[in-house]
Amino acid sequence: MPSSPSQRRYLLIAAAVVLLVGAAGVGYWLWGRSRLPGSGNPVYEQYVEAFQVGVAALDADVPVVAGENLNKVVGLIPQEPAGWADRGLFHLRTGQLDQAAKDLAEANRLAPDHPEIEKLLGLLDQRRGKFTEAVTHFRKAVERDPTDVETLYRLAQIVDQEHKEGSEAEYQRLMEQILTVRPDNLHVLVDRLRVAVRRSDRPAVQDTLTHLRRLAPTWADLTRKTFAEMETALAGPLGESDVFPLLTFANVLRSEPGYSRTASEVSPPDAFAGNPLRTFVKLTPPRNSPAPPDADLTFTPEPLADIPAGRWDAVTPFWLTGDTAPVVFAANAREVRRTGAGLVLPSIPVAPDGLIPIDWDNDFRTDLLLVGPGGLKFFKQGNDGGFTDVTAKTGLGDDILRGDYATALAADVDLDGDLDILLARRKGPPLWLRNNFDGTFTPLPIFAEVDSARQFVWADFDNDGAADAAILDAAGKLHVYSNERSAQFRKWPADVPNGSYRAVTVADVNDDGIFDVVALRGDGALMRVSAQNKRAGWEVAEIARWGPPPDVELGVIRLLTADLDNNGVPDLIVSGPSGGAAWLGGAGGTFQPLAAAVPARVSAAVDLTGSGRPDLLGLDAEGRPVRYRNVGRKDYHWQTIRFRAAPAAQPLGDNRINSYGIGGEIELRTGTHVVKRMITAPAVHLGLGERPRADVVRIQWPNGTSQYEFQPLIDQGVVSEQRLKGSCPFLFGWNGEKFAFLADFMWSTPLGMYINAQDKGGFLQTAEWVKIRGDQLVPKDGHYELRVNANLWETHYFDHMALHVVDHPAGTELFVDERFALEPSTPHFQMTGPTRPIARAWDHLGGDATEAVRANDGVYLDRCGRGLYQGVTNDHWVEVDLGDDAPKDGPVWLIARGWIHPTDSSINYALEQGRHERPRGLVLEVPDGKGGWKVARDKIGFPAGKNKTILVRLDGLDGPGVARRFRLRTNMEIFWDSFHYAQGRDGVEIAKKELLPVTADLRSRGILEMTRANPSSPELPDYDRLVARGQVWRDLIGYHTRFGDIRELLEKVDDRYAILTAGDDIAMRFAAPPAPPSGWVRDFVWVSDGWVKDGDLNTRYGKTVLPLPSHNMTSYEAAPDGLENDPVYRRFPKDWERFHTRFVAPDVYERGLRPLRTEAYPAGGQP
């Protein structure tokens, strides 16, 4: 207490000065803030657009787009800290640490002590190894935001690494702080248990075990078993030995559904990816939530032109091609009509939903299927826009064509790239018409437990990449089937909620990025039925009410979704025979009823005129087709995305995706708001609210590949990128200047793959050799350095890798036969004399091809055209003349070098159907002496990947001597670079030495850029150019090898292998032996043994790492039965404690465009 009046007066004056200074500071800050541009200012609007696109690109892991936009941001308004912070993160992710430090320092100067900026500064110091400084920054961040679990966990990890006095106690305290925010986080619970055991903290151990015990009933048997064993071990005195059963339990627990998601909450897969600031610190923030609904919407009836008066039974929008506006087709029992033309087609009695647009032949012209009590009728659209009745050519019997059907759905049931047809028989189970892609269909049973289906819904309810099925039957029962791929469906493991339902549709109504079943219950409640935790159960909630619905036949009431008001959230529309209603979607999964009446008998919501507003299409009380024009007060923006599976200039040579991507998914992001829709038509309409255009859209094509489009135009077409998604691991070598691409390898063991439409991924040959030229490997510090990279949608099982050094006399050559063949052979190399070019070559059309195949120059012979499917084309050959000076006696070897554009499992699966040419491997033909040709050697196979060499013995093919004239024939997409020949030198002296790696370090490096010079050239990876660090594929689920030294797993062929996923990289060093003696040269042979399994939707067990391969397996037929029952695991269980402890799941990929977390502080202001 002050002891005198003078002291009190002094303190009052001091306090006043402090207040004045504070007020001045606040005033200055407000004045400075007021000088910043605001909404409506062109500079501000440019900043918002570039900032949000840059942030979206950071979230989507597209660094090129992120860098371009964030560079623009800091130049537009340099006073805003968020731009500097996010560009600093961009530089941090791309390894530009000095530039990251400059940007983050500027962000920190503009906004001192901002928690998100402090976190990024900590991340930078951690990356630089400055752990003390990193801890300081992280402590500041969590002081300001104690709920930031990721930073808390990162701080705990560094504290643990420092091993200072009290580190373990603080680590435990931080785990407990995280658990106050995320009490059921399994990853953190295990970490708390681990440190409590080390500290002999019995109360904490018991508390954690009690919590885990409460969660245990939903775990798998093995997890519960190991948990019980751990509990028993921890019941006695606590000690260091108790950590081992805990580690065993922790490893097993990682496989539980949801574990990897909870781990990502605190410890993202890429530890240094960081999170961008997604809102402004000083600028006024834009709206990131959806715009308010337009509650004043009304619908004005307008008759459709060109449809004669009379009663019609069905009406539907119809995209004749993908690049035109939809027209309208109407049908009754007599005829089919369309607007805008005088088209009249004969009809049959049709169901209310019996007009089915479907492009069944992928020619980008939509065909028409009629379905109803009158059976089926197929009309194919021709190039002139006319329609021809092709019903008689479908190969379907009268019992199918004259059946009684309630509805139908066009869907790629077997995921093979063409649209099939699901038929709802009025009585009996549904029927699947499998599209054979040759104009015919094969009827097959499906969903046998469903009787009298009335409505189908097709969407991915568990977010695993394959669309599932929801079916409403005539009794109002809802059935849900999970898609197990390859046309295998199973009843959903969790029981579907009971109830009598009248209509179903699909939408992401709770805004979590996973599609929900939306069902109208018999009492009028609109129910959200959401799958939980990958099929573990269902969450059911009422979202609206319309009631009670009329008591009419099932299938008459329609439930639709569309963004009627363009506010950025799909709305719900229900329409019955006497009226309907709509509910407008808003922020947070809320729906408000629309005051305006919704007409009866509405069948679709679609923009028919290009106005940007979805109209309602239906039939009036007299059965006349009517467009109900959408009229509202809020002029929100909108976006139309059109889909095309191949460029217009090249419609052939792919067919991995149906023409318009039907069955795929699209996400659209504006700011941090994301909306997700199914692709059900050639164009999808999306509302944008107050934003003039989207920041980014992500398309998930039906074959499982994804694609990003940034800042698409208002009405933009999106053509599928014809990406290579599987091609085996890549090998790079140090050539004295850089790590250059050498080869892809392990082509001989594609697990679970349909091979050439003949073999279902057996164990053909696990050992493979690839030649490396002497000039391609240069010693570095006395070692040969190689890199093995996993880059595509695959899991690799590397059992053995070695480098053979082969020294041989100058004037001799070493070659390896690098072919794939269905008949296994023992890898070997062949010594020859000098190679010579062939004299002449002709293509299958008679054109001279000599120059194209004379040299290894990367110029490929490409004259065979393209077929229906990628990898299979027309019958073609290359005719070769060695020349008169070629040797007459053997041994003589043809050395053919080229590459193959491969098929994949889904293509091979499709080729098994209908009347299609199967892929035919190479055969060598010689003249038959009668003016024709005969096969001299068959089953040659094909080049095993990119730029591979095939060796073919030319002597003894047709009697004694060397065949000087021959041709290589196939129908596969093989592109030849060169044809040479050489005499064999089997007895030449060589010196061979096998090198095992002295280091083999597994690490996460990222996804490499792949480019191709032209359509005739292969896609090649560039080791120096990373395009992403995160998860760009839907990685196979299961245990992979932890990062670090893996030499023990690669030493020998023993089924103890390293397991890698996309983005993994092995850095290998081999001690270089002394140089070869004078007059000798050196080449190398890369030796590998192992397996590859890709994630193609028709690869057997292509979703998981299991079942584990082994050399004593004769097939890959047995389904996985859990890790604990896998024979390889049972032989080597310790490997899953020492090596295979990294559990991979596609959580990041499945998140799509949604940010991992949002800022903890209010938008736009200092925290």
UniProtKB/TrEMBL annotation:
Chain ranges passing through the membrane: 12-31
Q: Which InterPro entries match?
A: FG-GAP, Integrin_alpha_N, TPR-like_helical_dom_sf, TPR_rpt, UnbV_ASPIC
Record's SUPFAM superfamilies?
Integrin alpha N-terminal domain, TPR-like
Could you tell me which residues the TPR repeats occupy?
81-114, 115-148
What is the superkingdom listed in this entry's lineage? Bacteria
Q: Where is the ASPIC/UnbV domain?
A: 681-715
Please provide the record's keywords in A-Z order.
Membrane, Signal, TPR repeat, Transmembrane, Transmembrane helix
* PANTHER family documented for this protein: PROPROTEIN CONVERTASE P (PTHR44103:SF1)
User: What is the recorded name of this protein?
Assistant: ASPIC/UnbV domain-containing protein
